[in-house]
Amino acid sequence: MKRKIVAVMLATAMSVTLFGCGGGSSDTASTDAAETEAPAEETEAPAEETEAPAEENEEPAAEEEASTEEASADSSIPDGDPSDTDMTVLEGLRVGFSQCDNMNSWRIAETESIQAAADEYGVELVFADAGADIAKQASDIEDMVAQGVDYIIAAPQEEDGLQTAFKSAMDAGIPVILVDRGINGTAGEDYTIAIMSDFIWEAEQVANKFIEATGGKGNCVILQGTQGATSTNDRQEGFMNAIEGTDIVVVADQVANYTMAEGQSVMENILQAQGDEIDMVFAHNDDMALGAIEAIKAAGYVPGEDILVGGIDGPAAAMEAILAGEQLCSCSCSPLFGPISFETIARLEAGEEVPTEIMNEDTLYDINNADVSLGF
Description:
The chain is an alpha/beta fold. It has two domains: 7-197 and 335-361, Rossmann fold (3-Layer(aba) Sandwich), CATH 3.40.50.2300; 199-332, Response regulator (Rossmann fold), CATH 3.40.50.2300. It has helices at 64-74, 105-120, 134-147, 163-171, 199-214, 230-243, 260-274, 286-298, 316-323, 338-349, and strands at 7-9, 28-30, 94-99, 124-129, 151-154, 176-179, 193-197, 217-224, 247-255, 280-283, 308-313, 329-332, 354-355, 357-360, 364-365. It is elongated.
């Protein structure tokens, strides 16, 4: 199939919230064909919090409730059956998917979602797992360019290190769609479209739950994800911003690379040194939070009573921990990027305008609403 060259255009005076946390303006990407109406698919709007993301300043604070209700009214979880897009244009395409590290439950769910959507729409998926190696991921992407794929979907390991590989793709006329993490670069120049969650907002919601539960007092441990990743940088920023001005003190802040095993081992070491001083643990994802819970129990403490634990992602195991009283909360961050990724590609194939930034809606879950399944 002849590859289409995607041109990026600035959409002036246009506010797009296909997948927006609280709303925000976006640029658009399109091919030469006529515009058609964009699908209004969204994930579930925040149910527990109405505070807008810190990085989106255009939404008036006084209208938080109305804005949240509006988002809720228009939102739905992507189900792989986009009703307003001709998905038949995907059949026969070859699409590369560069996964940064297919080892934790969230990443596996993401890969499975993209593979399932590719199978559903008759797309040949060229898959590569970088194994958390940024150099290998760059090489994987260069290989996809050499193979002449029609599109590249990439989950970047870090914000820097892939720019040259992405330039090779863009120069070859291969659109690059970033999912779940971003890079340092400009849409339309360094990549085509980014589909992400508002990581700052997610961390703020967990921090606010800690403040509510503790009265804004206590000693906190932070378990960080992969260094240099957008999600890590933004979640750290969001949490620290939210606790500023409170009496919550960070007494330990260490990297555990988004894995349950490292979350457990790092937390074990922290507990040995500071166990009686710790009141709460913020983990950048729920795999690390669940590892921390195991370490807390092994050290003779009661998670949820002696030490509060909060995380991000919303897998079934975290929901179970919340319902069991072992985890305080989890802010969702869906890994199910398959439907929206291939809907985006279908719209580009059809020549539609597509936002260059598509933001997922996320929700804070606690004991009051955790009796749900987010599909992973």
